[in-house]
Structures are given as C-alpha cells and as structure tokens.
Design a protein that fits this description.
Elements lengths: L3 H14 L10 H12 L7 H12 L8 H11 L12
Helix pairs in contact: 1-4
Amino acid sequence: MTGNYEFYYASGLLYRLKNISTDKVLKPEPLGAAIQELTEGYEPEDQKEKHLVKMLRFYKPVDLFDEQMKELFWMGNKEQYMWQELPKQ
C-alpha cells in the first residue's frame, strides 16, 4: 500500500467483508486505529483476504484527508466485483 488513497479503498473493502455498516468515514488516525482493532484476530477466508489484512495492518496512515479519500472508502465499501475479474466487453 503506497498511500492514504489506497488505504481508504482497502478499508472500505474490509468494512464490507466484515459487514460493518457506517454512515461516516473516519479521519486517518482514527480509521487506522479502527482497522487495527478490526483485523486483530480476524481469520481471512482466503489468500486475497489475508493479503488485504496484512497490507492494512502494516500501513500507517499519514495526516492527510480529503473528499477523494471518502469517495474511495465508499467505493471499496460498495464493491460489487471483489476478487473477480470484470467481464470482458
């Protein structure tokens, strides 16, 4: 994971995987703390989930937050094609 943008998208994915509903997106430091709690003891179902959890656990968000990060969180949270290749057109 290279930055907060990827972190926010991946965090949205984790919230979806864990069926956690929320109506707000946390700022970087509180979201980082929430992700640490959510991944503590989490048993991934497969290698893809395991990789996602590993990336999230080791990423330390920087104090940078903007509207695009909120948007990326919601994109991850509503991802319809998680782990699937998109249909070829």
